[in-house]
Specification:
about 15% strand; alpha/beta; seven-stranded parallel beta sheet; TIM Barrel; two-stranded antiparallel ribbon; globular
Length: about 350
């Protein structure tokens, strides 16, 4: 089976020839793998590792200074100032927001005066050609992560306080973000829904121990618009991947109600995210994506530890609607190449 056929088998409720697998890694890790494994392109890397890579594509924006599939991370078009901050004694770099253009907004009129992007500004003309290039792989186009973007527009502390202290500001900003996301989704789906498999309707609402906001606030500010985007994707026959870090167990019933198809990244070392419990309580409703621990096992374990965990995951998630083997978030730069290779070799070994 091709990678696309494996993913689509799960979507159809049937069993593929083996568990599909995906790759998420930082730019530093991908560059190192290309070098260490002697692969001239990422396409060759996926083939060598046997990765059923979900290909993330995006329309372009003429004013964007970044090149990313997260449309909400085109910080330049949202007027968000960033700085590149190194970590781990310089082994990697992350881009962090340091200028929040709506940080001083006091009233709704301040929000309305902001130069919001227009969905018409994006260039959708190359999407079919991009899809043709990756015809054997599952394809994702269209991303929405509104509270993630809200925090960078407003500043995280102010954004969280708004939900209680300034709900009218929160509603105004989130509605404008939604209008942009919905406009982009509709244009993408109108043009290439028959080519693609997924859109990405996500958030980052969990810490290691708990949620960033209560389920009540999630239902008030985020859930209704999230459901509208998911319903739009489903109306075109396109599935939805939902990414949510950390200890999000209390939100999973609400996420299922919105209609998500895939739950990523399954950080099972976080409180309440035990794999067996997730399968028992939610396995009939969800395809799980991730679950190979990148906090301890991948960076600090042995190749045998990694193989053992992949085997555990395939066994545990066998009773779910489906399982796609992948790291539980981006593989970090302190992860040995041997452990990454072991992850994908184990997918071939344990089925």
């Amino acid at each position: 089976m091709t990678p696309k056929e494996r993913w689509r088998a799960l979507f159809a409720g049937s069993k593929p020839d083996r568990a599909p697998c995906d790759y998420w890694g930082t730019a530093e890790v991908t560059c190192r793998l290309l070098r260490d494994l002697g692969c001239p392109t990422e396409a060759e890397l996926w083939k060598q590792l046997g990765v059923d890579k979900c290909i993330h594509l995006t329309p372009s924006h003429p004013r964007a200074t970044e090149d990313t599939w997260h449309m909400q991370s085109l910080f330049s078009i949202w007027q968000i100032g960033t700085a590149k901050l190194s970590y781990g004694d310089g082994i990697g770099v992350y881009e962090e927001a340091v200028v929040h253009p709506l940080g001083d907004a006091q009233i709704v009129a301040d929000v309305e005066r902001f130069a919001w992007p227009d969905p018409e500004e994006w260039d959708y003309s190359s999407l079919r050609a991009q899809c043709d290039r990756w015809s054997e792989y599952p394809i994702l186009i269209g991303t929405s992560e509104p509270f993630y973007l809200y925090c960078r527009l407003r500043g995280m502390e102010r954004a969280l306080a708004d939900l209680i202290e300034a709900p009218e500001i929160a509603e105004a900003i989130l509605e404008r973000i939604f209008q942009v996301d919905q406009g982009i989704f509709r244009r993408v789906l109108d043009q290439v829904a028959d080519y693609i498999d997924l859109v990405y309707v996500a958030e980052d609402l969990g810490t290691q121990e708990s949620l960033l906001m209560s389920p009540r606030l999630f239902r008030q500010f985020l859930k209704p618009r999230m459901k509208r985007l998911i319903d739009l994707a489903h109306s075109f026959g396109v599935k939805v991947m939902h990414h949510d870090d950390g200890a999000i167990r209390p939100l999973i019933p609400d996420l299922i109600e919105t209609g998500i198809d895939i739950l990523n990244p399954v950080q099972w070392r976080c409180r309440g995210m035990e794999r067996e419990t997730l399968v028992r309580e939610f396995g009939r409703s969800l395809i799980f994506h991730g679950g190979v621990d990148n906090q301890q096992t991948l960076p600090f374990g042995t190749p045998e530890d990694v193989r053992r965990q992949v085997a555990e995951n395939i066994r545990i998630f066998r009773d779910a609607r489906g399982y796609i083997v992948a790291p539980c978030h981006n593989i970090q730069a302190n992860t040995p190449t041997a452990n990454i290779v072991a992850l994908y070799e184990a997918v071939q070994e344990f089925n």
